[in-house]
Amino acid sequence: MGRTGHIAGLSLFLAAAPTLAQEPHARYNLQAPVTTIAAQIDDMHTFMLIICLVIFIGVFGVMFWSVIRHRKSRGAVAANFHEHTGVEIAWTVIPILILLGMAWPATKTVIAMKDTSNPDITIKATGYQWKWGYDYLQGEGEGIRFLSALSTPREQIEGAAPKGDAYLLEVDNPVVVPVGKKIRVVLTANDVIHSWWVPAFGVKQDAIPGFIRDAWFLAEKEGVYRGNCAELCGRDHGFMPIEVHVVSEARYAAWVAEQKSKMAVAQAPADPG
Amino acid sequence: MATLTHDPIHAGHAAHHGPTGLMRWLTTTNHKDIGTMYMIFSFIMFLSGGVMALTIRAELFQPGLQVVEPEFFNQLTTMHGLVMVFGAIMPAFVGFANWMIPLMIGASDMAFARMNNWSFWLLPPAAILLLGSFFVPGGATAAGWTLYAPLSVQMGMGMDLAIFAIHIMGISSIMGAINIVVTVLNMRAPGMTMMKMPLFCWTWLITAYLLIAVMPVLAGAVTMILTDRHFGTSFFNAAGGGDPVMYQHIFWFFGHPEVYIMILPAFGIVSQIIPTFARKPLFGYASMVYATASIAILSFAVWAHHMFATGMPAAGQLFFMYATMLIAVPTGVKVFNWVATMWRGALTFESPMLWATGFLFVFTIGGFTGLICAIAPIDIQVQDTYYVVAHFHYVLVAGSLFALFAGAYFWLPKWTGHMPSEFLGKLHFWCSMVFFNITFFPMHFLGLAGMPRRIPDYALQFADFNAMASVGAFGFGLSQLIFLVVLVKCVRGGRKAEARAWEGAEGLEWTVPSPAPHHTFEVAPVVR
Q1: Number of domains composing chain B
Q2: What pLDDT score was predicted for residue A4?
Q3: Span B472-481, pLDDT tens digits
Q4: Which of B334, B414, B428, B444 is catalytic?
Q5: Domain assignment present for A23
Q6: Nearest to B215 by CA among B164, B267, B259, B169
Q7: Cis bond leading into B413, ω under 30°?
Q8: What is the CATH number of the domain that holds A228?
Q9: For chain B, N or C: smaller number of CB within 10 Å?
């Protein structure tokens, strides 16, 4: 099902797509999902696209038939009908039924997205102008905290150096989480509203100063997943990406140990004892 | 449908009396003069907002920062939105209403002629405040056209100028709306019952109620920002007991009806044009009226679909998702009615009809993406991405703007007495149509693939479609200069227009000579 959107996009924009083979990034459709929620969203989008396409072809098939066949220049004489109760009721009721069909899967997904209960790990993400702060609040890695800012060098942005593969989507300290664990992200912000968005997870949640919001994901595949701040937050809104590394449990444990020792070193001089 | 005896003896009185030169335009209370000024004003604002859009597209032509700094980029996106919404689209429709509503219902002028003058002349000072804010310390507001707090509280004095400009434009809109309501309800010619009114009058009547209902809400929202900025209140500041999200609720309670304020009159214009060139009555007139009213009423119950990413309880998300999906029903009814009007007509495709058909085709794409955005989980992925940018340009450019062009080509003969150039009109349409789609269609792909909106620089995988959109945007911008040529040529001369300028045209406005004399319907016509 997920292919169909690709195919529709392809046929429309074949001319503009020089290199399609081995494409690492999504170009025509949603990014490849790595959570159940993102997969549901992807399927729902494809499903809706097909329904819309069918209606589109139906309605505009009729319109273009008229445009071509019912021309005055072809000798068409105007009919004089201007209402038909049966037809009007039909094209009011049938769309309602189609909408019900769309609402059903969407409702199930909305409810699933809101279920942030029983997480394995809880991470607080705080939006700053213009970087993210992360605190591991609960679960393995509890107590780890760091700031995460854009690591793309200024020269690349100004065109003084060639741009790297992860241009504008790379950070100095990525978020690291274990694969197959339910991660709850608790969000807030320090100054203005930001939004924490990782497309492959199907998570986008505003971070609101003075308030707490939450979201969750359970990544099913190891890898590096990238996203952006999705709410205009001032000058460098376009320069505060999100980078999440989903790793095996063993590598996660190693990362946690490394972070703990780093933090111990950093705290030592400040210790009054 | 309508009959009128135009009295040739009084034709001499139709000439203009009163001051001439600049004073004529400053002091005029004539609905046609005021309508013309509204339209000239909105076209100037359209070109200003267009220059901003092209600067944005120039920066986004390739990855990296080349043309403007990020801060100025944000000012441009913000001002492009504000100028196009409040300066171009809304005043253009009010201009159409001023010119056409009295002519369509057989009234001699608008109900409150002096207030009409005032509601226009408020606009130039507001525009000066808004555009002038680029030149104050700190520049124009860069908080996005939605002016979300607390970002808007951080801005420099350009924000205050924008707030005052919005206040003034809001007052202007409210006065214009009151004028339209009273004119439509009280000044219809004898026999012109509500359900005989041209659909353009119906859509504007409903729009005017929306304006009266929501412009004060916007004024309240920006006033609260103003006091948060300068007088120590904390409406949107959590540290003082406020809530930043409350701003969004108030803004979108205005903002969503505002969307329909910008599209319902467009529906009205298209509903005048399609029957004319199909030479067949509008299909489902009554259902069109009910559909318009349903859209207007529903528009008050869907605002939080702009806020799915703020984190509402599931019940809230579900309510706003269902309500939003429902809007597809009356909107679908309208599209089906227009297609049924064309069905088995005797169609010709002069410029107005070409634009109206183009509107129908491209606007409907915007309607479909709107339905997709209504699904809360999908919206979580596409909210604040280029997908949404594509969606609202399909409804606002291909919707409102294309309908405005359709209406302009349709009624230019009545306004100027000359037929607009068919060749240039068609050239304008085909260039606009092709370049519009080159600009905005790839934005759907950009948004789906993960490009956020309102960013001056982007990841490399978005480069191709951005380059394409930028090329399209410059083509689209230049195409609009064709319209300027059409206007100048049409005002200066051209083939003389008859009273009934188009073969299938029906309605009172086609019973008065072209150009419409300065005073029309001094004696009300009788509608059978």
Answers
A1: 1
A2: 44
A3: 999 999 999 9
A4: B334
A5: no
A6: B169
A7: no
A8: 2.60.40.420
A9: C
